[in-house]
Amino acid sequence: VQLQASGGGFVQAGGSLRLSCTTSGSTFRDYTVGWFRQAPGRERELVAGIKWNSRHTFYSDLLEGRFTISRDNAKNTVYLQMDNLKPEDTAVYYCAAGTMIHGLRRNRDAYKDWGQGTQVTVSS
Fold this sequence. Notes:
Helix content is 0%, strand content 50%. It is mainly β and 124 residues long. The strands form two sheets. Strands 2, 4, 5, 6, 9, 10 and 11 form a seven-stranded mixed beta sheet that branches. A four-stranded antiparallel beta sheet has the order 1-3-8-7, with no helix packed on it.
């Protein structure tokens, strides 16, 4: 699937952003869609994911409940609502999709299709 991420921007600490991940020409049915982020000098890490069919969601343990992933079936879009943003959330955020067994859903390499990334910058 081809993915397009959008919604990044510049926000002050404590603010919110909502990222969107859409696909064109296909659907997310049977896929797991994940949001990852990569800060300068750091590894790309999982933020959150959702299994399209079951709506099962999973998150990085580091988020402290500040982010929420959801999907809109009619719009074939996955959202990442980010609240109470912190400067350490500054990164390029990527959405990715793949079909994998449940146990690999947190594994970056299990996602075969990636969007182009959207920059999120949080000022202190």
